Amino acid sequence: MSDSKVKGRVQEPNVRVNNFNEVELGFNDEEAHLEASRCLNCPKPRCMEGCPVKIQIPKFIKAIKDNDLKLAYEIITESSSLPAVCGRVCPQEKQCEKMCVKGLKGDAISIGSLERYVADVAMKNDYASTAKKESNGKKVAIVGAGPAGLTCAGDLAKNGFSVTIYEVLHKAGGVLTYGIPEFRLPKSIVQKEVESLKKLGVEILTDVPVGNAITIPELQDKYDAVFIGSGAGLPKFMGIDGEDANGVFSANEILTRINLMGAYKSLSKTPIKKAKRAYIIGGGNVAMDAVRCLKRLGIETHLMYRRSEEELPARKMEVEHAKEEGIIFDLLTNPVRILTDDNNNVIGMEVVNMILGEAGEDGRRSVSEDESSKHVVDCDMVVMALGTSPNHEALKNSNIVLTERGLISVENSKTSLDNVYAGGDAVTGAATVILAMEAGKKAANEIINALL
Amino acid sequence: MYKVLYNNKISSNSFEMAIEAPLVIEKAIPGQFVIVMSHEDSERIPLTIYDYDKEKGILYLIYQVVGGSTLELSYVKNELFSVAGPLGNPNEICANINEFKNKRIVYVAGGVGVAPVYPQVKYLKEHGIEVDVIYGARNIDLLLIRDKIEKVAKNMYYVTDDGSFGEKGFVTTVLEKRINDYDICVAIGPVIMMKSVCELTKKYNLQTIVSMNPLMVDGSGMCGACRCEVDGKPKFACIHGPEFDGHKVNFDLALKRMNIYHKEEMDKLFEMEKRLHKEEY
Ligand SMILES: Cc1cc2nc3c(=O)[nH]c(=O)nc-3n(C[C@H](O)[C@H](O)[C@H](O)COP(=O)(O)OP(=O)(O)OC[C@H]3O[C@@H](n4cnc5c(N)ncnc54)[C@H](O)[C@@H]3O)c2cc1C
Ligand code: FES
Known about the structure:
Oligomer: heterodimer
Largest interface: A-B, 43 and 46 residues
CATH class of the largest domain in chain B: Alpha Beta
Largest sheet of chain A: 5 strands, parallel
Strand order of the largest sheet of chain B: 12-11-10-9-13-14-17
Bound molecules: flavin-adenine dinucleotide, FE2/S2 (inorganic) cluster
Distance between the termini of chain B: 17 Å
Low-confidence stretches of chain B: none
Low-confidence stretches of chain A: none
Shape of chain B: globular
CATH topology of the largest domain in chain B: Rossmann fold
Radius of gyration of chain B: 18 Å
CATH superfamily of the largest domain in chain A: FAD/NAD(P)-binding domain
Strand content of chain A: 15-25%
Number of helices of chain A: 17
CATH topology of the largest domain in chain A: FAD/NAD(P)-binding domain
CATH architecture of the largest domain in chain B: 3-Layer(aba) Sandwich
Strand content of chain B: 25-35%
Strand order of the largest sheet of chain A: 3-2-1-4-16
């Protein structure tokens, strides 16, 4: 059995930097079969320990080997509601694939790619079950149509609840729609997930800002239970000089303009700044997505991160893809201030080199500035991808209890308010799709137990 | 999709639109705004709520054609793709009527700024507070909804740059003459007007509320496009505003930030005018 994984086909870097089509093309039947055959089907599967939702990984891989893709799909969907999404965006190298014994000597099994393969086949052949139990007469309101809200809605609808989702944007999907770019997660996949919810009878009301158009207490009156999945919140800025210049954006703004509003398409009316050289500050998935989007618009793009490559929090695959695409990595460097002309346009940035220190209690290595290294770089765009701070708009008039960090406080998915549950980034702070999905599932279970 | 009842031209460059949007206005209070999209590929345009009929579920908007997206909006006939709202915070006075019962209040509106001013003046009148309104524009053609605002204002003062209607001069000329008559001023209009009003009222120590209209995308606090500097700190106009203490707003920065997409906007406008003239949709 081979120690090397089957390499999935990708769009060539020099081609894909000129389009927004999906980078990874996914396994075909033969490739999937070959990769599945590498799995040892361990009796005590370590991979499952690494999976936040405990998918029966060896079992579904065996089903692929046995050419029973329907079964493979059923096994995955016992634990995961969004396999086509998670197969594409989960940080597998930190989860299931990290634990795979094959990885000790050679490559781990490409579990994520296999999951995606099964999910794609299932979508093409409509394997998804739209079976649902008879109506139980109970009504649930969901705030936010991101992965947490969508998953909670799906599980409840299947169990006979009447479910209404309230979403402030004009499209459902949350980060899957406005944040993660088309070339990593095609929007048609997200829309399919949304469509299948509608088939289950879930009502999705877009354009509704909860907190203003309707408040949580009002939802409590109208519904038997409420689930809040309103996401991570406001983009953070550094607080340095020049940050209010024309040409400084949050990564969320850049990504929303491009992904939600389609600013890269000729028909779209939403503008995006035509810069020459852009610096994206940060090292997570958000930074990586922003830098790769801007690259595709023909901008010279730099990723500036204050630690080293090893500490980059982004998915490893995205870092590799970004490098292949010609993104310039300026590591161990941090902005000091942004320089502007008289019209407040960005013309450059003063930056400083950073020195890595010892790992602190949280396991992250400390960093300090090398004062003597300050220098100026030319640029006309700076994009901040520094994380988020909580947004309490949805919670207006509700007295809901928050944690010290300002996140919604929950115990077993339950908030301090009667029949109000919460999950996803609104509870954890910016995290991952799979964790948000799991939180939606758990809350749905709690709601079922409480109401039936 | 939202049903559009009408979308009529009311001056050389302004339109009034009536839209069926019951959920949007059910709880709206003057000072709040909506974000509309003409079509699926349109830009999201923030517009302050101008009027509403809660019983019939109708939202009224007034907008000026200033770029490609408002030009496109002016061509909308039967349906709007999206209307999100109400967004932002209500006007402080409208939201806390009792605290302001004995205050002498003046509203200053500039140009299309009369659209957000009107519902506040009307609301206050309905709740027992009568206020004066100073309304200025470049010329008589740009003074909108005169009959409506006159019906709800206590005293109405018009002023035009060219003297074609009312007094000749600027809103500040009129305001300064009566400035000692008031305890609070609310100024809504072009940034440059709000800036001049605030410079004046600061001198006289007259508390002034302004409504900021920066670029926006989501309008829900997610993108930060709407950053304004208030009291030296960045604020997101869509969720922290849109109204702020005018004496603390950095107007010079706001003016400069309005030009972020100037070039891109001009390119698009040019393209669209070509296309719209061809299609007339
Ligand atoms: C650019 C980017 C890339 C990412 N890449 C990855 C990745 O590769 N892998 C991974 O696992 N994770 C990734 N993440 C993280 C992941 O997307 C999030 O953890 C996940 O989407 C959180 O799901 P959620 O349902 O809690 O919130 P969200 O997806 O944020 O959804 C919240 C929804 O609530 C709506 N909402 C907010 N306020 C209101 C209100 N007042 N009224 C009504 N609706 C409201 C929002 O509009 C939104 O639609 C990425 C995040 C970003 C931003
Ligand atoms: S418009 Fe996006 S945060 Fe205000």
